[in-house]
Design brief:
The longest helix is centred in the N-terminal third of the chain and has 14 residues, at about 35-50. The protein is mostly helical. Helix 4 (about 70-85) packs antiparallel against helix 5 and helix 11 packs antiparallel against helix 12. It has helices at about 20-35, 35-50, 55-65, 70-85, 90-100, 105-120, 125-135, 140-150, 155-170, 175-185, 190-205, 205-220, 225-235. It contains 13 helices and no strands. The protein has two domains: about 20-120, Serine Threonine Protein Phosphatase 5, Tetratricopeptide repeat; about 120-230, Serine Threonine Protein Phosphatase 5, Tetratricopeptide repeat (Alpha Horseshoe), CATH 1.25.40.10. The protein is globular and about 60 Å long. The protein starts with about 20 loop residues before the first helix and ends in a 9-residue tail after the last helix. Helices cover about 70% and strands about 0% of the residues.
């Protein structure tokens, strides 16, 4: 016996109603993607004003504060997001990197570990964990983290780049060049990767190859070396206690 088809005239379609602040969050996301940070901040502020219980709005506002260099304010936003939603892996990851920038390394790693526990296949958390261990001088652990990130996203150019830097630091220069090449395969327009590959090629006494890489750096970002010098000579702030 054939199934009876319900008359379409009787079907009722329920229109999805946005939660308070949802539109402002989406608008802020679009503005952030286009680099309009100040306007994105206004949208996220409007979102938390209309819905103070939106964990996403607080998290995204934290990202804006971080981009603007307001680490303490960013930390407050992430804490608000996590109070509302303790199982929010992105907020744990973001909080971890803010704590790292505030020189609270042990707490930063704990936050990243929590993010990974909640979302084991998140390559961003694995990458950030690797960056912290690399800066601490533990390149082996860093490489394990980068490999984890690449296991879940083998096109993650930043993971290939950072893995290459870690390999170069422990003298595995051939492998480092291979990592840089894989990073460039997925993102050929990133001057940092070309610069790091140039360094590796110089260690291999390949001056011609290194010169080509540096030419690419200058083509992509003429002021790169000036920015690199500024970054290297930047005065470090006193270390905060954990």
């Amino acid at each position: 016996m054939p199934l009876r088809q319900r008359s379409t005239s009787r079907l009722k379609f329920r229109r999805k109603i946005d939660s308070p602040g949802a539109r402002d969050v989406r608008k802020g996301n679009d503005l952030l993607k286009s680099g309009r940070i100040k306007e994105a901040k206004i949208s996220y502020e409007n979102a938390v004003d209309s819905n103070p219980k939106s964990a996403e709005a607080w998290n995204n506002l934290g990202v804006i504060e971080e981009n603007m260099g307001s680490h303490i304010e960013a930390l407050k936003c992430y804490n608000r997001a996590l109070k509302l939603k303790p199982t929010y892996p992105e907020a744990w990851c973001n909080k971890g990197m803010t704590l790292y920038r505030l020189k609270r390394e042990s707490k930063a790693i704990k936050c990243l570990d929590m993010s990974i526990k909640l979302s084991p296949e998140n390559p961003v958390a694995w990458l950030n964990r690797g960056v912290i261990f690399s800066r601490k001088g533990d390149q082996q652990t860093a490489i394990v983290c980068y490999n984890k990130a690449l296991r879940f996203d083998d096109s993650y150019s930043l993971a290939w780049l950072n893995k290459g830097i870690a390999l170069m630091k422990i003298g595995r220069v051939d492998e480092a060049v291979d990592s840089f090449d894989k990073a460039l395969l997925h993102r050929p327009d990133f001057p940092e990767t070309w610069f790091q590959k140039a360094r590796a090629l110089l260690l291999m006494h390949n001056k011609e190859g290194a010169n080509y890489c540096m030419e690419r750096v200058h083509e992509l970002q003429p002021e790169f070396m000036e920015l690199l010098t500024t970054r290297a000579t930047k005065v470090r702030k006193p270390r905060r206690g954990d």
